[in-house]
Amino acid sequence: MALMGASDPSGEAEASKEKPFLLRALQITLVVSLYWVTSISMVFLNKYLLDSPSLQLDTPIFVTFYQCLVTTLLCKSLSILAACCPGAMDFPTLRLDLRVTRSVLPLSVVFIGMITFNNLCLKYVGVAFYNVGRSLTTVFNVLLSYLLLKQTTSFYALLTCGIIIGGFWLGVDQEGAEGTLSWTGTLFGVLASLCVSLNAIYTKKVLPAVDGSIWRLTFYNNVNACVLFLPLFLLLGELQTLRDFSQLGSAHFWGMMTLGGLFGFAIGYVTGLQIKFTSPLTHNVSGTTKACAQTVLAVLYYEETKSFLWWTSNMMVLGGSSAYTWVRGWEMKKIQEEPSPKEDEKSSMGV
C-alpha cells in the first residue's frame, strides 16, 4: 500500500521469513481483525444513517455524496502531509488534471452505481440479508469475463456459481416466506453486484491513466462522484428533505456522517493491508468468513428469528463463494506449475 511506503516484494518475502512465527501470526491476526472491525462497523453505521427510525432521514444520495467528499478531502490531506513530511509517510502527489479526470470518468460512472446501489440495497433490506442480496458478484464476474474479455470458465467454477445462485434464490424465497422481503432492495443488490464486477474490469483498464496508483484512482473517482452526485441530489428532491431534517444542526448527526466517510476511506486501506500480510486467496476467505459473522451479529443485534432454510441459503452463498475462490486458486497454481512448451522442447533435446 502506498500509504505505508513502497517496498520490494522479494524484500518483503525475505523479511517475513526472518520474523519469528509468533510475531507473524500476531501481525496477521491484528490485520485481519482490523479488516473485520472496519468492514462490519461500516455496514452497521451505514444502515443507521440510511434507515434509522431515530434519524428518519430519507436522503441516500446525500449520504453517499458526503462519504465521497470525506474520502476526497482525506486523500488530498494525506497528499499534502506526505509532501510536507516526506520521511514520515509515502503517499502519491495529487493534483487535479482534467485530462485524467475525463479518462477516469467512465469508471467513475460505474463506481457511482456501485456505491449508490450498495447503499440503496442496505436501506431497503436488513443487514442479515445484505450479504445474500449482494451475493451475485461472483456470478457476474464469470459472465462479464466471458462477454467482455472472452475468458472461459471451468466446469467446477461454474458449478460453484450454480450453488451461489441457488442460495440467492432460496434466500429470496425465505425472506418472502417471513414477510421481510423487499423486491426493491433485492433489485438494488443485484445491480450493486453487477457494478462491482464492472468496476473490477474497468479499474484494470483505467489504472494506466493514473500511473497505476490506486490512491490516485480513488481520488479521481471520488472527485468525479462528488460532481455527478450534485445534480442527482437536486433532481431527486433530497435538498428539500435535508432542509426539513430536524437534526440538521446536530453535532452527533454530522459526527456519524463523517465517521461513515472515514470508514469508507479506511476499508480500501485495510483491504490492501490484509492482502499484503496474507494473500488474495486468504483475503477472499477472510471476507467470506466475515460475511458469516456479520450475518450472525445482525440476527442477534436486531433480535430476529430465522428459519433453517434461511440459514441454509446463507451457507450455500458463503460455501459457493469459498469454493469458487478455492477452485480459481487451484487452477492458477496448476497453470503456474505446468511447464511451458519451450521448456518441454528444451528438455526433450537434452538441453
Structural notes for this entry:
This protein has 351 residues and is mainly alpha-helical. The protein has helices at residues 9-18, 21-51, 60-84, 98-124, 127-133, 137-149, 155-177, 183-206, 214-235, 238-243, 251-277, 280-301, 308-337, 341-348. The chain starts with 8 loop residues before the first helix and ends with a helix.
Please specify the SSE layout and strand pairing:
Blueprint (H helix, E strand, L loop, with lengths): L8 H10 L2 H31 L8 H25 L13 H27 L2 H7 L3 H13 L5 H23 L5 H24 L7 H22 L2 H6 L7 H27 L2 H22 L6 H30 L3 H8 L3
Helix pairs in contact: 2-4, 2-11, 2-12, 3-9, 3-11, 4-8, 4-9, 5-12, 6-8, 7-13, 11-12, 12-13
